[in-house]
Amino acid sequence: MALLEAKVKSVLSGDTVVLHNVNNPKQERTLSLAFVTAPRLRREGDEPFAFESRDFLRRLLVGKVVHFRVLYKIPTGANREYGTLSLPNKTQLPDLAVAEGWLKLRDDAGRKDDSDEAAATLERLQALEARAKADSKGLWQESGGRINSTSELSDPKKFVDDHKGEDITSIVEKVLSGDRLIVRLLLSPTEHVQTMVLMAGIRAPSTKRTNPSDGKEQPAEPFGEEAQQFVEVRLLQRNVVINVLGVSPNGQIVANVKHPVNGNIAPFLLQSGLARCTDHHTTLLGQEMGKLRQAEKDAKDKKLGLFQGHVAKAKPGAENEATVSRIQSADTLFLRNKAGAERRINLSSVRQPKPTDPKQAPWQAEAKEFLRKKLIGKHVKFTIDGKRAATEGYDEREMATVTFQGKNIGQLLVENGLASVIRHRQDDTDRSPIYDDLLLAEQTAQEEQKGLWAEKAPAAKQYVDYSESLEKAKRQLTLLSRQRKVPAIVDFVKSGSRFTVLVPRENAKLTFVLSGIRAPRSARNPTDKGEPFGQEAHDFANRRTAQRDVEIDVEDCDKVGGFIGTLYVNRENFAKALLEEGLASVHAYSAEKSGNATELFAAEQKAKDARKGLWHDYDPSQDEEADDTTAAAESNGTNGETAATTRRKDYRDVVITHVDESGKLKIQQVGTGTAALTELMNAFSKFHLNPSNNAGLPNPPKAGDFVAAKFTADDEWYRARIRRNDRDNKKAEVVYIDYGNSETVPWTRLRPLSQAQFLPSKLKPQALDAQLSFLQLPMKPEYLQDFITFLAQESADRQLVANVDSIEKDGQLWVTLFDPKESKTGDQSLNAEIVSEGLAMVPKKLKPWERADTTLVATLNKLQQEAMDAHRGMWEYGDVTEDD
């Protein structure tokens, strides 16, 4: 037979090899060595010395070019060819294998070929076998040769845990595709495991295969055959080192496969364009994934293999700087550049806690707050990585990498377990440039059970809306008004001077209104028209305060539950900032009340001088004329009448605590007295909560006695005085001396008021008697009741300004009431509003100091005539004074 040349692809057993054409690896033929046989490798268990026999031949031949001659064929079955091999160094097979004892002669060897050449070969082999037997070589050893070889792993995960970090010497038995191998793991000289191994970090195209469900053949993916051949040529039946890393979802071993000389084969596959990186193994590979990404990039740049039609991703945009103006969610930010333009960006490759996932939803607020504290108002750097196309329910989104002080914000969120990493498709172009680092950070967070990955969800932060009703606001006002510069967060900007703020330490949500100023109203919707500079004031407030940490001083609350006070941003009064920009004007009453009048007027004047905003057409002469008019009025008032007949100018902050059935008022003057009362009431409450102080009155009360009485409406204890006593029913009518209201209570709700710190001599009763100036109340009970109801509603839980026009000898005050937020002149007083509504009339006989203010009297008479003409209130049936 002719002498042929081929390359040894693999060794099936100690006596059979697979050869392929030197120039065309796809042309293969199987050759068995003539006249000999070797022990068999079987799935159910190898015969003794089967592995050693095969391994002798494998080490000798695989990858080598050999010459072979076919001596005979057996036509049955596989039509196998039998012959001899020779290596370039003149080594002959099967001679060498028989001499080493790894092959033995067939029993029917002499019948296979009866030629003289065959007879000579057979005689030579017999002599070599006899010598091997005599020397107990190979198969002829008296012991050994048993290897425990398994082809299935009962617990792949345990196997990985036991062998992670080890270099396991192995043999590649079969290459299924470019990234899937059947590998024999040589755990010890007597223990082998054959299993499938996935190459870590890559995915190669599949080869041609048969679908087991329908038996149909599925063609190979593009470059699938080339990838398989690339690995076969380099690794098939070669010794390799396996580093097991993990287990795939299907229970297959994931590992690095290293050539003994050239190392990990995965980068070489990638550089040749015969595989792609897979994100699923990033957490297993760690920093090694970066090398694979670079190898893939090299193939893309050269347009090799799978990347022949690759279009290079647009280079990331230039790094920009901006200020974080708003945190919409844990993965969506609004950035404002130096020109003031705002843009929305999404953090690349990270996702906020899913609101639809019950386990993740509780972390949504935590993640957003984490970003708010870290970024709001801060300068950051950002690079646009790509754009995500618009989909149903979502606009087009810009995906960006944002860094603050050199730290990637997306990675910071993931590290703290406050965001998860998006699993991208292979063709996604908007992934983060540090995607692998994000995956590693997520794995670390999971292992450390941080944030989303913790077993226990955070307690939900529930804020109580105290501006929901006036009653709620009043309750919280008592607490907040005693504190200075309370830490808060601006949750929403409603207008230039109105905000929704959160007070975390009180779990309180408030509507907060700036005191001392009035900002123009902005449009509430697209169809609404705002006041001039209203939108500018709103935008300015948004830029300076939205989502910022601030401090608030609460002074009062308005009639709809809004809290009035001072808001500090970076320790600066924000009302002052608005005024300096000309985006608000000073409200004199509330400015004086807040104690910031000097500062606010100075800020307003600064804007006027600079002709800013509201004052763009400011004329200083208008202020001078107003000053001259005021000075003249004051001069006339001083020289016109004596003090006894002159209306006083004595403005005081007051609270109406009670309106009795005759229409007379009880008021508290806000100031040191009410502050002392607050302290006293706190101590008073604590005193009566102590069980040791729960003794009742030792004797029946007497009219005029000071006692502690438990008010029926709220079950709290207050200072009171006995007005009447009903001994038969053991009840007493009491007047609460600090508020002016009265009620009848049983003696069991009375206690002695003998403690020195609570006596009226320590703090005088705070309820003062007062009546409204310039008014005569209706005589008819139904109209009088309308007056009482109106006044009670208008003054409920509101702080007013009272001008004490006159003081009677018995201490009763005659007052004109003003709303500090609305009243600017005398005809905008509460007294004037009562006349206008027909709830009272202007007296025909005025007191001397009332007659002295002719302008105000004329205004009130005009309002009264309008009420009569409109038949409002007491005038509904005409002029009630006609019969007088």
TrEMBL record:
Biased composition (Polar residues): 635-645
SUPFAM superfamilies registered for this protein in UniProt: Staphylococcal nuclease, Tudor/PWWP/MBT
Domain (TNase-like): residue spans on this chain: 2-142, 166-309, 318-455, 484-617
GO terms of molecular function: nuclease activity; RNA binding
GO CC annotation terms, alphabetical: cytosol; nucleus; RNAi effector complex
Subcellular location: Cytoplasm
Chief place of localization: cytoplasm
One Pfam family matching this protein: SNase
Sorted UniProt keywords: Cytoplasm, Phosphoprotein, Repeat
Domain Tudor, chain residue ranges per copy: 700-760
GO biological process, one term: mRNA catabolic process
InterPro entries to which the protein is assigned, alphabetical: Silence_cplx_Nase-comp_TudorSN, SNase_OB-fold_sf, Staphylococal_nuclease_OB-fold, Tudor
Source taxon at top rank: Eukaryota
Entries under SMART domains matching the protein: SNc (SM00318), TUDOR (SM00333)
PANTHER family (alphabetical): EBNA2 BINDING PROTEIN P100, STAPHYLOCOCCAL NUCLEASE DOMAIN-CONTAINING PROTEIN 1
Protein name in the entry: Probable endonuclease LCL3
Source organism (scientific name): Lophiotrema nucula
